[in-house]
Amino acid sequence: MRFLFSWLKRMGYIEESPFAQIKNIRLPQKIVQPYTAEEIGRLLACCDSRFWWGSRNRAMILMLLDTGVRRTELVDLDLADLDLAGQRLRVLHGKGNKQRVVRFGTKAGEAVEDYLERFRGREPGALFLSRYGTRMSSHSVLIFLRRLGRRAGVEKVKVHRFRHT
């Protein structure tokens, strides 16, 4: 409403906005609860690495946990962005379209290596593939995490919580 009346004033339709003296109400920010070690353990336990999707999901969870990348950044990753030896990941299209390099740990590196060696291969293209062999969508990550959370008995499984863990 405030914007509408500001526009009406700017355009000369009204003399003064009735909202001019009213201050915005600041709502308290929601605190994002990080995952507990037990919740992470339960999520990883539900990733059966005998199957390609379990290996991929395990690698994705460990990468999210170590790097704190956003969901869109995760699905935009290409194999060329990965430096396993240096344990670095190049994020090309971050928030504000900024490029940055993030580091990951040994466990995440080993999980990605396992996924690449046993299932994905080393062909150029998207790092994490869908069941159709194409780049995963941001929405498909949301769906897989939701399903994984249900199986693991972990509530509110979202990518953003990994950034706070």
UniProtKB/TrEMBL annotation:
What InterPro entries does this protein map onto? DNA_brk_join_enz (IPR011010), Integrase-like_cat_sf (IPR013762), Integrase_catalytic (IPR002104), Tyrosine_recombinase_XerCD (IPR050090)
Any idea where the Tyr recombinase domain is?
30-165
Keyword tags: DNA recombination, DNA-binding
Cite a single GO MF annotation: DNA binding
Q: Transmembrane segments in this chain: where? A: none
Sorted alphabetically, which Pfam families does this protein's record hold?
A: Phage_integrase (PF00589)
The biological process GO terms on file are: DNA integration; DNA recombination
| Name the record gives this protein | Tyr recombinase domain-containing protein
